[in-house]
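Annex B.
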Amino acid sequence: MEEVVAKEEQLGEDSGDKLAFPSTCSLKLVNLPKLRSFYSGNLTLECPSLSDLWWKNCTNMHTFSSRLLITPKLSNIWADGKTLKVGESKLTLDYYAKTCPKFEQIIQETVTAKQLSNPTTAAATLRVFFHDCMVEGCDASVLISSNSFNKAERDADINESLPGDAFDIVIRAKTALELACPGIVSCADILALSTRNLVKMVGGPYYKVRLGRKDGLVSQASRVEGNLARANMSMSVIIDIFKAKGFTIEEMVALTGGGHTIGFSHCKEFSSRIYNHSKTSETDPGMNPMFAEALRKVCANYQKDTAMSAFNDVMTPSKFDNMYFQNLFRGLGLLASDHALVTDPRTKPIVELFAKDQNAFFQAFAHSMEKVSVVGVKTGRKGEVRNRCDVFNSIKTD
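Peroxidase: predicted structure tokens.
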């Protein structure tokens, strides 16, 4: 029992993306001092019949499940005198069905109008959502504005270039939702569902978004570093960043492709590949020469105009497809980290698969986004429903 989830296939019904115990009604964990978590695998843990959980003398167990947990009937928890964290069991697909029945309609109307008027909104929102989830979890902490007491996440250097369209879409949706059902819908849920709907609008795969997140109570720029990959990081470091959040290499590649197939990067992020690359080459030899020359013209004034940028997928920048992966083999990768995907033996086979098979990419991306969307979510008293998405309900002075 020390390693309860050593082999997931021995525990329950593994359907590919979830591990299910359909008949388990009660569970007792007794005298297991070395047990830290009942489940810490990569799949969704589903216990549809579980109603009672009993825990005694498990002194090192602080989390029942570190992944998405679906226990709709769980009502009784005896935790040996301490509070037991029950994963994300409060997230459901129909969380607002009774309290805010127009929630999904309002989100869809808002994102549709915004995407039609600003076609880069989908890419912007996907990026902001990912940056949010990878730091404090999917809790809308990246939306908080700094004040005289606190430098917030969005002002960390890696977040300074986050597109304003994403923040605007959340503000618009929140305003409409506060009129329809005041104080009910969290900013975190708005961002999560808006992202999914926008991805679908530009041709990406549909994936489930469970709802019920609360907005986080912490947003500090100092806590961002080390949680997000940078373009100049080695592939080993990038893999480790994703691994620390529970993602496999394949999931990392899928998420990168999803962000870059419709994304864009500022010139400063790839300037070292097109200007003074080395003593022997002005541009990176791994980059298509004509592509490099075109980028040199686009970014000629980037030091004065820091907003100058280029699409990560030069062929189909506004369409969510697998062209990004195909481009990498043509020397059309924009960032150093893009090029590394096809030179590192750990990632190259995955890139080859996704370049040949768009369905494989879509399936991997959808699965990975379902995982991303529940990273570190807050429920119950762990968070709040903000009145405004850029401000905590109570001013934080630390």
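The longest strand covers residues 26-30. The two ends are 41 Å apart (CA to CA). Further annotation is deferred to the next reporting cycle.
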